Amino acid sequence: MRFAVVIPAAGRSLRFGGIKKEYRLLDGITVLSHSIRLFIENPGCAAIVVLVPEGKEALSDAKDAIGPLLLAKAGPRLMFAEGGAERFDSVKAGLLALRSFDPEYVLVHDAARPWASPALVDRVLQETIRSGAA
């Protein structure tokens, strides 16, 4: 089963004092890296698109937060796109960025949620297959 992932990380982190919580370290890597690694290690994951704030500096900051080793491991499966003013706009931008991959399913995973497990991903995918959405 081919699936893709949209990871919104374009928020302003206002409730966190404007500090991008996705770029904070947790167990030696950034919160965003935890989320990306979860899907990179899943053989069914065809593509991941990370939504970042507008501007080249934001893209550079995101890549710095992910680090060269994980970027290299992800290779062309990892893409970046500019998010929008609201989460809805960011998810839409992510879906549009995935058009060329034509995945069977798309998961949306909040970048600030680092503790999702492979078992949770499998359960969500199985329920999505069974019911069409989860």
Structure description:
It contains five helices and six strands, in the order E-E-E-H-E-H-H-E-H-E-H. The chain is α/β, with parallel strands linked by helices. It has helices at 31-40, 56-66, 68-74, 87-97, 118-131; strands at 3-8, 25-26, 29-30, 45-52, 78-82, 105-108. A hairpin with a 2-residue loop joins strand 2 (25-26) and strand 3 (29-30). Helix content is 40%, strand content 20%. It has a four-stranded parallel beta sheet with strand order 5-4-1-6, sandwiched between helices. Strands 2-3 form a two-stranded antiparallel sheet.
What are its keywords?
alpha/beta; 6 strands; 5 helices; 134 residues
List the helices and strands and how they pair.
Blueprint: E1 3-8, E2 25-26, E3 29-30, H1 31-40, E4 45-52, H2 56-66, H3 68-74, E5 78-82, H4 87-97, E6 105-108, H5 118-131
